[in-house]
Amino acid sequence: MRFAANEKLEIIKLVEGSSLPVKMTFDQLNIPKSTFYGRYRQYLDHGFEGLEAIRADRGGQWNRIPDKQRQEVVETALEYPEKSPGELAFHILDDYSRYIIAWELCRNVREKPHHPQTQGKIEMYHRSMKNVIFLENYYSPEELETEIASFVDYYKNHRYHESMNNLTPADVFFGRGKEILRKREITKQRTMV
């Protein structure tokens, strides 16, 4: 749902003055925390004017990757041929909102030909993202980046994947998976006694 600037300001004031925990306040107002904090940052940086809807400049493509960054990704991919697209993206960027761009470029540089499992996983990831992202209309690149960053954080760090033994991608990537599975097995054995 889209709000006018005065409604956004009213929501900010409600959250600031609420005696409830912040998460509960967001739930009561039916506002995602990423959306609130994006608006709140705009308000702190630019005041009331920052809450006005910002239209993308019609003169160019706001989501086009600059040539310099594109070349950096290609050079890094060629320098580290053993790394997967995800590992390359982590290597190149720390910023989640730019992670997706790096992932796409790295995937295009080195996607295994004739490997349907990899392609299926990538397509499922994109479909999951589109299902979440397309639920809203975004009037500025910053809003879209905030929502993508929120999705990527959830997908990598909080969403359990059945194909990964109900671990998160971050657990698998950082090598925590075996320890988590071992603890689960111990807990399972204790509860069955």
Could you describe the 3D structure shown?
The chain has 193 residues and is mainly α. Among the domains are: 54 residues; 67 residues, no CATH class. The protein is built from ten helices and no strands. α1 crosses α3, α4 crosses α5 and α6 packs across α8. The chain is flat, with a radius of gyration of 20 Å. The mean pLDDT is 77.
Task: Determine Rg (CA atoms, Å).
Answer: 20 Å
Fraction of residues in helix: 55-70%
Percent range for β-strand residues: under 5%
Q: What are the segments in which pLDDT stays under 50 over at least 5 consecutive residues? A: none
Q: Largest sheet, described in full?
A: none
Task: Write down the secondary-structure element order.
Answer: HHHHHHHHHH
Mean pLDDT score: 77
End-to-end gap: 51 Å
Shape summary: flat
Could you say which structural class the secondary elements and strand pairing correspond to? mainly alpha
Per DSSP, the total helix count is 10
